[in-house]
TrEMBL record, chain A:
The chain crosses the membrane at residues 7-28, 68-90, 102-123, 151-175, 196-218, 257-281. SUPFAM superfamilies: MetI-like. This is Sugar ABC transporter permease. It holds the Pfam family BPD_transp_1. Residues 64-278 form the ABC transmembrane type-1 domain. Belongs to the binding-protein-dependent transport system permease family.
From TrEMBL, chain B:
Belongs to the ABC transporter superfamily. This is sn-glycerol-3-phosphate ABC transporter ATP-binding protein UgpC. It is a peripheral membrane protein. Its main location: membrane. GO terms for molecular function: ABC-type maltose transporter activity; ATP binding; ATP hydrolysis activity. SUPFAM superfamilies: MOP-like, P-loop containing nucleoside triphosphate hydrolases.
Automatic annotation (TrEMBL), chain C:
Keywords: Cell membrane, Membrane, Transmembrane, Transmembrane helix, Transport. The keyword Transmembrane helix applies. One of its GO terms (cellular component) is plasma membrane. It is found in: Cell membrane. This is Carbohydrate ABC transporter permease. It is a multi-pass membrane protein. One of its GO terms (biological process) is transmembrane transport. The chain crosses the membrane at residues 12-32, 70-97, 109-131, 143-164, 185-208, 241-264. SUPFAM superfamilies: MetI-like (SSF161098). Pfam families: BPD_transp_1 (PF00528). InterPro entries: MetI-like (IPR000515), MetI-like_sf (IPR035906). It comes from Phyllobacterium salinisoli. Belongs to the binding-protein-dependent transport system permease family. It comes from the Bacteria.
């Protein structure tokens, strides 16, 4: 049976090789890089350089502020919306269920580039369908790309459209795992449907919703393609620059790998920190 | 076909001993049943014989050779699992032949063996079906068929009937018995059901907490249990135990009185006895109580409930608060006087156990 | 009873009144994608409100093909997604099998590392990955660079491990007693039984590869080695390109995935939901 152990390693080895080379080692390497001066050749160890610069860089603080702003607004809005979608989709009264599911879940399969392009066109200042529709109800055109607040709103709208259905799928799966007899018992006890939602459904969904929030927080911290393509590389004038975009610029435009690594670790640390904070706030009441 | 023996077999997971020093001889063609409560190690012992679990210490011999380091497939065993373990994506025919085909057995021989097994078990017409299209009993037959196909020296059964309903269980039990007669192969069978053990076995091995408590023929265990555990485990309903105290002894007998009714005194032919005044346990099987006055001591009990099954009745009664008895009566349809019910104990049908549960003889 | 059925009807009406507008808003961008892809550029950039498709899809696609070699990019995307999916399912199901069904030294460490790092942002690894592949191996603009590094994805390992753990172990013991080799047990019993999980996993992995943007953008910058999303992305932001063409490209990228989604919705949803149930 010792030989069975060897067989286990044989099954595991090919994946483990790739996993180590392209995931584990880079995690470590990235950490090491953040302490190196990568602007000289050869790279030198210079522990304070990147982290010191990060702590003083106004561009970093701008990106951090934008990212956190998007996160704080977008995640709660999207999770609320996703919960509503899931609860309504789960109703036994619903007709044409397949159609509604398609409407909400379809964005999950749409690629970032494709949807970025559509949103750019839809929100175009002069010819975009959104402004045209706003005009028909008497609202003046919004310059979605030229001013910061509307540009941020646009990003939030776009990300919410793309990911609400994804979270709704997860929450719906959670809803369907709640046994029906709990509701039957509550109905016999004359608990109204609304109260059933707040006092049965929501508490039982808590872990799933927390999970969705953590996923969304990690996702928002990494926001890159949307500001890159929709608001044209973080425009207007850095108004929608996110940490992801800032990292991309430092790493792959300026090719300053050490500094970009410090940014990467900041993103990771913040994602973990905010997730933990969120889990702590949402913990089971004692 | 082969004899099998365990020599001081030990199984340990970390510091936890699952099997302690198990030794056993099984002769060729014997039907041996491992029985015991869940967690007693019986399945682990079977899986060690199969080669599915490593052996921590001791030796397992099959057909005159140590098989400790032999792969399961090379031990000449076949196993029937509790869940049947049929491959759901294969037909019955493919299930039966899978092992032989994967190990390169000649095609014609594989087909011959499948046909033979199907005939023995009368499942020929099921060969093209998949497991999910079969009833529980049919699945069980296929699982046994898969073992027969291997033409093993030893059959191993791991609680094979526990997933069947009561009626099928009796039917399959008879069938396994018939199969054993037909094939004459050594069989080792694990169950927690003492009825299965009593009806199937040539030899029963009673296990508890990783220890072999007693090995013997079914009726020997019934008549002559080595300890209180075996006495309680073999027989249904189980043996009654009453607290007693030794009040007198001679070189070849001992007199005890019941703790809860000290007027009840009984003299038993027991030689090896602790001192006067020691606490012991008196055991009487429900079916061994006699009519009042026809035994060696009368015992008045208070009746709780009487169950009348037609041919027999079970009377649940108390010697005193907290000490309950089950008394089996033949066909007693009459109303029972709940307060003045008297039975008799025969000393020839009573057992004595010491404080540690060891049988006193 | 009467009042009960009436309140049910009211609730049903309210439900549909709430959901229908939301569904229309959610479908709107996809609908507009189709509409834009069939309109000539002067139609897209006209002051009129156009909500119905026109007939210029083929022309738009030809424009797109002129702006960037989109057919070549599509070929690359399809090949990469297929090869990646097959390889990833193979590797991760083997690893998942090992972690589910064998007790060996280091097993729990491997599981702990995978679980502990799975939520780390991709940005943490992308820089060293880039340095390794582009600078040390000098493999920019290669097929290997597109396919191999993303194989680190451990979702499949957890997914397959879960599926194999749920299978009754007696099934594999039965085969072992019969002398079936371990790799045959894996191929002939475990994998066939895990087919639904593999289907769900394949869909998720294919979609991830098909839509992958950042890594292909970084590593394959030569126009003849761009994947379709990267090729399309390069056009966004330029003024002298055909937006109808871009939309046609978006439809070509999205349409097949939507069809797959509709046909295999159950696997899709199972794949996404299972990520949460770990």
């Amino acid at each position: 049976m010792q030989s069975r152990n060897r067989i286990a390693y044989a099954f595991l080895a090919p994946y483990l090789l790739i996993f180590t080379a392209f995931w584990l080692w880079p995690i470590i390497d990235s950490f090491l890089l953040s302490f190196q001066n990568t602007r000289v050749n050869p790279w030198t160890f210079s522990p304070g350089l990147n982290w010191g610069r990060l702590s003083r860089d106004p561009a970093f603080y701008n990106a951090l502020k934008n990212t956190l702003l998007i996160l704080v607004v977008q995640v709660p809005v999207m999770i609320t919306l996703a919960t509503i979608m899931a609860v309504l989709l789960n109703s036994p009264l619903l007709k044409a269920r397949g159609l509604f599911r398609f409407a909400f879940f379809a964005p999950v399969v749409v690629g970032e580039v494709a949807y970025a392009a559509v949103f750019r066109l839809m929100f175009n200042l002069n010819f975009g369908i959104i402004n045209k529709l706003l005009n028909t109800v008497g609202i003046p055109s919004v310059s979605w790309f030229a001013e910061k607040p509307p540009a941020m709103a646009l990003l939030i709208i776009a990300v919410t459209w793309r990911w609400a259905g994804y979270n709704a799928i997860i929450i719906l799966a959670g809803l369907q795992s709640i046994p029906n007899d709990v509701y039957e018992a509550a109905t016999l006890d004359r608990v109204s449907k609304i109260r059933q939602f707040f006092f049965i459904t929501l508490p039982l969904l808590r872990p799933i919703i927390l999970f969705c929030m953590v996923l969304s927080i990690i996702g928002s911290m990494q926001l890159f393609t949307e500001p890159f393509l929709i608001t044209d590389r973080g425009g207007p004038g850095g108004g929608t620059e996110t940490l992801g975009l800032f990292l991309y610029r430092q790493g792959f435009v300026s090719l300053n790998f050490g500094y970009a690594s410090a940014i990467a670790y900041t993103i990771a640390a913040l994602a973990v920190l905010i997730s933990l904070l969120n889990l702590w706030l949402g913990r089971e009441p004692k | 076909m082969a004899e099998l023996s365990l020599k001081n077999v030990v199984k340990r997971f970390g510091n936890f001993e699952i099997i302690r020093d198990a030794s056993l001889e099984v002769s060729d063609g014997e039907f041996v049943v491992f029985v015991g409560p869940s967690g007693c190690g019986k399945s682990t012992l079977l899986r060690m014989i199969a080669g599915l679990e490593d052996i921590t210490g001791g030796e397992i011999w099959i057909g005159g050779a140590v098989v400790n380091d032999v792969e399961p497939a090379d031990r000449g065993i076949a196993m029937v699992f509790q869940s049947y373990a049929l491959y759901p994506h294969m037909t019955v025919e493919q299930n039966l032949g899978f092992g032989l085909r994967m190990t390169g057995n000649p095609k014609a021989d594989t087909e011959r063996r499948i046909r033979r097994a199907a005939e023995i078990l009368q499942i020929t017409e099921l060969l093209d079906r998949r497991p999910r299209q079969l009833s529980g009993g049919q699945r069980q037959r296929v699982a046994i068929g898969r073992a027969i196909v291997r033409e093993p020296r030893v059959f191993l059964f791991d609680e094979p009937l526990s997933n069947l309903d009561a009626e099928l269980r009796v039917q399959m039990r008879v069938e396994i018995s018939r199969l054993h007669k037909e094939l004459g192969t050594t069989m080792i069978y694990v169950t927690h059901d003492q009825t299965e053990a009593m009806t199937l076995a040539d030899k029963i091995v009673v296990l508890r907490g990783g220890n072999i408590e007693q090995i013997g023929a079914p009726l020997d265990l019934y008549d002559d249990p080595a300890n209180q555990f075996v006495a309680g485990f073999v027989g249904s309903p189980k043996m009654n135990f009453m607290a007693a105290r030794i009040i007198g002894k001679t070189p070849d007998s001992v007199t005890v009185s019941l703790v809860n009714q000290d007027a009840v005194q009984l003299t038993l032919p027991v030689r090896d006895v602790p001192a006067i005044g020691e606490m012991v346990t008196l055991g009487v099987r429900p079916e061994h109580f006699a009519e009042a006055g026809q035994g060696d001591a009368d015992l008045a009990v208070k009746v709780d409930v009487a169950e009348h099954l037609g041919n027999t009745s079970y009377i649940y009664a108390n010697v005193a608060d907290g000490e309950q008895l089950v008394i089996e009566r033949e066909e007693s349809r009459n109303e029972i006087n709940r307060d003045k019910f008297v039975v008799a104990i025969k000393s020839s049908r009573a057992y004595l156990f010491d404080g540690a549960g060891k049988r006193l003889k | 009873m009467k009042s009960k059925s009436r309140s049910t009807a009211t609730r049903s009406l309210l439900l549909h009144l709430a959901l229908t507008p939301l569904a229309i808003i959610w479908l709107f961008p996809l609908w507009m994608m189709v509409v834009f892809s069939t309109m000539p550029d002067h139609g897209i950039f006209s002051p009129r409100i156009e909500l119905l498709p026109s007939t210029h899809f083929a022309e738009n696609f030809r424009n797109l093909q002129a702006d960037t070699n989109f057919l070549r990019a599509l070929t690359i995307s399809i090949t990469v997604a297929v090869v990646y999916t097959v390889l990833s399912v193979m590797l991760t199901s083997m690893a998942g099998w090992a972690l589910a069904r064998y007790r060996f030294l280091g097993r729990s460490i491997v599981v702990a590392i995978i679980l502990g790092t799975i939520t780390l942002p991709y940005f943490v690894v992308v820089i060293p990955q880039f340095i390794m592949v582009a600078r040390e191996f000098k493999m920019s603009n290669s097929w290997i660079a597109l396919v191999v590094p993303p194989l680190f994805n451990s979702l499949g390992v957890l997914f397959m491990r879960q599926a194999f753990t749920m299978m009754p172990s007696e099934l594999f013991d039965a085969a072992r007693v019969e002398g079936v080799k371990e790799w045959q047990i894996f191929l002939r019993i475990a994998l066939p039984l895990a087919r639904p999980t593999m289907a769900a996993l394949s869909i998720i992995l294919f979609l991830a590869s098909w839509n992958n943007y950042l890594w292909p953008l970084l590593i394959n910058s030569r126009p003849d080695m761009m994947t379709a999303p990267v090729a399309l992305g390069t056009l966004i932001g330029f003024t002298k390109v055909s937006w109808g063409g871009i939309m046609a490209g978006a439809v070509v990228l999205t349409g097949p995935m939507l069809v797959v989604f509709v046909l295999l919705q159950r696997h899709f949803i199972a794949g996404i939901a299972a990520g949460a149930v770990k």
